[in-house]
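thread: overnight batch results

M.L. [08:02]
morning all. the overnight job finished for the chain we discussed friday. pasting input first so we're all looking at the same thing
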Amino acid sequence: MLFYLTTLNLARFLQVDAPDLGENPDRQTVAAVDAWKHSDFLCKNYILNGLDNALYNVYSPMVNAKALQESLERKYKTEDAGSKKFVVGKFLDFEMLDSKTVISQVQEFQLIMHDIHVEGMVLGDSFQVAALIEKLPPTQKDFKNYLKHKRKEMKLEDLIVRLRIEEDNRQSEKKVGNYHQEAKANVVEQGSPGLQFGVLLFRTYCRCILEDCRQEPSAPLREE
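M.L. [08:03]
and the structure it wrote out:
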């Protein structure tokens, strides 16, 4: 809007007040004031025309273009400052969790960085890299310390590639560990019936011996 008003030579009415007629204005002064009021009227209504209908009814009573501009700036610059604080708070509160994949949380981090840039706040690549490393989840503690002690500077894209490789390696190791546990469980499970059968056979053998002993007649006593 400011560019458009500048091309129409009306932007100056956003900053200056109406000229004073004085006590005994001459014809030239009156003509100058009338010309100013006409240009101010155009400037004010160009701005109002760019507003939503509901906002038009709110701001149309403003006496001139300068008052209208100041009122809009007070409202929306305050909201803009609040939006910046919200985005910064979101960045400071962001922490990675072990319950989610690292890469999915990296994408959340990148979205927050995008919102910060949209708000006009510029964060250097080195700062973003250091912040992302610091926010890694607790299970990545060793890898986090390794990255923090690297002397060579890394770009954010390079760090994301490293994180993706590290996560893929962890998932592969987890799958191998699960496979070994399942294989061990299968071996134990398959060996259990044989063991149970051996115990049962031993008990049956012992029972048979005892029964044979009971059925065998005792030897008669010899008389002296």
